[in-house]
């Protein structure tokens, strides 16, 4: 019986189990699509709990598959749940869940990499960036081949405040291969410190919540999985355009085991490279003999700010592309070699 004066909490009515849905609709996991399902609802509840308070929230679940996480999201009492699933075989099972939670679920048969997230939620949910995050969450257990490009795309969206972040600081709770999660959260000096660590930590508080052992999935993947929660920061740690930060960070990590100046050199054309590298390192006050993985976030900020000033003084600098220069040189060399070869008779 409902407690007088209190709205009764939403619970899904009795339904076939996720395992039964899989059998009923013959949802054999497709290995080539890296489909690994979670059938243990205690585990899916634990993932959903990491997202925070979901009562009356608007949630988008990416890749719901047979719907284990979907059930936990619905049981958390959300107001609206948008499901984006690429594989048509899962749609009838999701429709069954939708009927059990009338008016709450919207199913989209589509690809999250191209879906227009800026139109996914009602406009009235929008918050200013500096305000509390909107009551919007993105949750998903996606294939690893999708989750990494997706987080890079969403980090760019955070930086530009577009895509799912036109609503404000929308929070994401996503699964990754354990090693990728370690890269996302690695501190300076850590073995896993990489480009992904800087790009994610300068825009979000990145929380590595817990590890799900591979054997919890059906079928079992080769690797363990980690749940990562990303609340976007009000103020990015590096206040420069995404493309500029990306270029500096990519260049620095180009030669991971060498001194960091080796990668920084590649920001500059051959003519004047040494002088400009010295100028950048000195003005940014960064020791050129540190290794890329030893650099702190404030050292990356200083490098990006100084590089930005140099680009403002010489706008051709930002479009300079080291790899393209190498390609052109190689082309020229092979052209010269072919024209200087003696002709065979
Ligand atoms: N969330 C379910 C679970 O935890 O049991 C299924 C997880 S399975 C690893 C990944 C799911 O994402 C599959 O249902 C797959 O079809 C779906 N998927 C894969 N790529 C997708 C994409 N680009 N857009 C939307 N869904 C995708």
TrEMBL record:
One of its GO terms (cellular component) is mitochondrial matrix. It is found in: Mitochondrion. The keyword S-adenosyl-L-methionine applies. Belongs to the class I-like SAM-binding methyltransferase superfamily. rRNA adenine N(6)-methyltransferase family. KsgA subfamily. Coiled coil: none annotated. One of its GO terms (biological process) is transcription initiation at mitochondrial promoter. It is an enzyme of class 2 (transferase). Its EC number is 2.1.1.-. GO terms for molecular function: DNA binding; mitochondrial transcription factor activity; RNA binding; rRNA (adenine-N6,N6-)-dimethyltransferase activity; S-adenosyl-L-methionine binding. Residues 43-234 form the Ribosomal RNA adenine methylase transferase N-terminal domain. Keywords: DNA-binding, Methyltransferase, Mitochondrion, RNA-binding, rRNA processing, S-adenosyl-L-methionine, Transcription, Transcription regulation, Transferase, Transit peptide. This is rRNA adenine N(6)-methyltransferase. S-adenosyl-L-methionine binds at residues 36, 38, 63, 85, 111, 141. Transmembrane segments: none annotated. It comes from the Eukaryota.
């Amino acid at each position: 019986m409902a407690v007088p004066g209190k709205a009764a909490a939403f619970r899904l009515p009795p339904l076939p189990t996720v395992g039964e849905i899989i059998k009923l609709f013959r949802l054999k996991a497709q290995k080539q699509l890296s489909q690994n399902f979670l059938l243990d609802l205690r585990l899916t509840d634990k993932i959903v709990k990491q997202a925070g308070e979901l009562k009356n929230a608007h949630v988008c679940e990416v890749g719901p598959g047979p719907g284990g996480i979907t059930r936990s999201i619905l049981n958390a009492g959300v107001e609206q749940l948008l499901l984006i699933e690429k594989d048509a075989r899962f749609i009838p099972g999701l429709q069954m869940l939708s009927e059990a939670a009338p008016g709450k679920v919207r199913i989209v048969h589509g690809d999250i990499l191209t879906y227009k997230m800026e139109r996914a939620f009602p406009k009235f949910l929008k918050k200013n960036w500096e305000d509390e995050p909107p009551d919007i969450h993105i949750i998903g257990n996606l294939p690893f081949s999708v989750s990494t490009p997706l987080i890079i795309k969403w980090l760019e969206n955070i930086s530009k405040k577009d895509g799912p972040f036109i609503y404000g600081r929308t929070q994401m709770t996503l699964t990754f291969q354990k090693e990728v999660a370690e890269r996302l959260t690695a501190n300076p000096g850590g073995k896993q410190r990489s480009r992904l660590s800087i790009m994610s930590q300068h825009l979000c508080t990145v929380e590595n919540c817990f590890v799900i052992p591979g054997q919890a999935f059906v079928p079992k993947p080769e690797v363990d999985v980690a749940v990562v929660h990303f609340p976007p920061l009000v103020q990015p740690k590096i206040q420069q355009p995404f493309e500029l930060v990306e270029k500096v960070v990519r260049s620095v990590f180009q030669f991971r085991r060498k001194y960091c100046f080796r990668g920084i050199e590649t920001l500059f054309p051959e003519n004047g490279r040494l002088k400009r590298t010295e100028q950048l390192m000195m003005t940014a006050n960064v020791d050129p003999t540190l290794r890329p993985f030893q650099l702190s976030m404030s050292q990356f900020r200083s490098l990006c700010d100084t590089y930005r000033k140099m680009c403002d003084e010489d706008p051709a600098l930002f479009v300079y592309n080291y790899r393209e220069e190498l390609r052109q040189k190689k082309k020229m060399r092979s052209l010269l070699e072919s024209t200087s070869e003696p002709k065979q008779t």
